[in-house]
Design brief:
The protein has 501 residues and is α+β, with helices and mostly antiparallel strands. It has four domains: 151 residues, no CATH class; 153 residues, no CATH class; 74 residues, no CATH class; 70 residues. The chain contains 14 helices and 15 strands. The strands form three sheets. Strands 3-2-1-8-9-10-11 form a seven-stranded antiparallel sheet. The protein has a four-stranded antiparallel sheet with strand order 4-5-6-7. A four-stranded antiparallel sheet has the order 12-13-14-15. Strand 13 and strand 14 form a beta hairpin. Helix 8 crosses helix 14.
């Protein structure tokens, strides 16, 4: 047998048996993927969180930042003044160091009781919170590593407009996740099934990670071999004896071949991009830390008397007819300022100059550019203000995987001349780096996000059409996998029947 014949035979065998092994899994991926076009995995977006907060009221008897512990005062940009369980409180959001302090006394608000968790959930839901908050470390809806600092969590059943479960931090008393009942039910045939979360035991689970990587890789090989076999079996010139272009007479095989010729390329790109979403072996992670955020923030800065007083900040914002629901402090280049946010996510910046408070809508571009240079030892090659989405920085709907990411415009874009050609998108409303991308992350963007969901800004502008096309192709992929399931079942039954005899 020639080398060509051997290769051809093995291609047929690989497609046959990998297809039999993976056709049911791929069918489930396509069905659940169609659900995920409309219903995402439970998450708490910044918009949902802010919309649930009441406007900050009378701050006459509130203590300033100077009342907080010295360690907290040294890092004021980690502090936010918000509402927890119907009461104003200072909340620290610095990595794994999270906690809450009273605005009246400056004392730590610990421990978070079930009653506080239920009150916080009721405020968020705008309805009844049923008594009996349950303490959980992790469950099917709380695998996100962003929740690690808040574990264990309180799971509180709530009523209101969207009855379901609300998860509350045991360290701060804040709501950190909401999972409406309807969303939960759809997720059982959506994201929870799509990501094989029934096999995931914890937020960091190497066994689950590698299982998904291996299964995705095998299914990718099955799709590639199927494309090759499908092209080989199609008569581009002439016909088979039946007069058809395909050799298959049996209906299931015939439909599998025909649908495969139409949809196999899309099936391949979706399975391959799903593999890429797992970032196997860290291929889409930069080889080193591209940005030095500590240098960007600068050295510690003394809290100005008025800048650390909530009453003064609220008065300055009120004079501009702005009604904040939260105050956050920031430090950039060693300079401190406050960011006030309202329930729609709009912001105002309050800084201190010569003892007077100044209210701005965004940071001065030249000022931010100078301080952004400290982010990297490499020279800054370009700095510009961008007013519209590009292929890397763009907003998504809440149901998308990255739907909770802040994507606000205008945004400052800084390009550095390091080995990774790092680009940083800086929020002019807060000074925060919203997105950092090197060469590898840019490649990952195309091989995962684009191939998986066709999320170019130009496509997203015609979202209904994009969804319709994705849905139509997903139906074709579902039909292809369904025919494979039938064919695979018949093949196995045929193989097993002689043994039984």
């Amino acid at each position: 047998m020639s080398l060509r014949s051997t290769a051809k035979r093995w291609t047929y065998l690989v497609h046959r048996w990998l297809g039999i092994g993976g056709c049911l899994l791929m069918l489930l991926w396509f069905v659940s993927g169609m659900v995920m076009l409309f219903i995402g995995y439970p998450k708490l977006t910044p918009g949902e969180r802010l919309a649930a907060l009441p406007v900050l009221g009378d701050a006459g008897d509130w203590r300033g930042l100077s009342a907080l512990p010295a360690a907290v005062q040294a890092e004021p940009e980690a502090v936010a003044l918000t509402t927890v369980g119907g009461e104003a409180a200072y909340v620290v959001r610095a990595g794994s160091n999270v906690g809450a302090w009273s605005v009246q006394t400056g004392q730590a608000l610990l421990p978070v009781s079930t009653q506080r968790a239920e009150a916080s959930a009721a405020q968020f839901a705008g309805g009844q919170a049923f008594v009996g908050a349950m303490r959980v470390d992790e469950d099917r809806w709380t695998h996100s590593r962003a929740l690690d600092a808040h574990r264990p969590l309180y799971r509180v059943e709530v009523g209101g407009a969207q009855p379901g479960d609300v998860y509350v931090s045991s360290h701060t008393g804040e709501v950190v996740l909401d999972a409406p009942r309807v969303q939960q039910r759809w997720n059982y045939v959506g994201a929870w099934l799509h990501w094989l979360y029934f096999l995931r035991m914890q937020s960091v689970d190497p066994v689950w990670t590698w299982l998904v990587i291996v299964l995705s890789a095998l299914c990718t090989v099955a799709a590639i071999s199927g494309i090759v076999v499908g092209v080989w079996r199609w008569r581009f010139r002439g016909h088979y004896r039946t007069g058809a272009k395909t050799p298959y007479v049996e209906p299931w095989m015939r439909w599998h071949h025909l649908i495969g010729l139409v949809a196999a390329a899309f099936v391949f790109t979706w399975i391959f991009s799903g593999l890429m979403s797992m970032n196997p072996l860290g291929v889409f992670s930069s080889t080193r830390e591209a940005i030095d955020s500590v240098r960007y923030r600068g050295g510690s800065a003394a809290v100005d008397g008025m800048l650390g007083e909530p009453a003064a900040l609220l008065a300055a914002a009120g004079a501009r007819h702005f009604r904040p629901v939260e105050i956050q402090w920031r430090r950039i280049g060693g300079e401190l300022f406050a960011v006030l946010l309202d329930g729609r996510g709009d912001t105002r910046i309050v800084s201190s100059e010569d003892g007077e408070l100044q209210v701005l809508r965004q940071l001065p571009v030249d000022w931010l550019q100078q301080r952004a240079r400290a982010m990297s030892d490499a020279p800054m090659q370009a700095f510009a203000v961008q007013h519209a989405a590009d292929a890397y920085f763009y907003p998504r709907a809440p149901e998308a995987m990255n739907g909770a990411a802040v994507r606000r415009f205008p945004v400052a874009v800084a390009d550095f001349g390091d080995a990774e050609a790092t680009r940083v998108y800086l929020d002019l409303a807060t000074g925060d780096p919203l997105l950092t991308m090197g060469h590898r992350e840019r490649v990952g963007r195309w091989l995962f996000y684009f191939l998986h969901s066709w999320d170019l800004p130009a496509m997203l502008r015609f979202d209904s059409t994009r969804l319709a096309v994705l849905l139509l192709l997903s139906v074709a992929g579902t039909a292809l996998c369904a025919t494979a399931v039938v064919i695979g079942y018949r093949r196995l039954r045929m193989k097993l029947r002689p043994r039984r005899r």
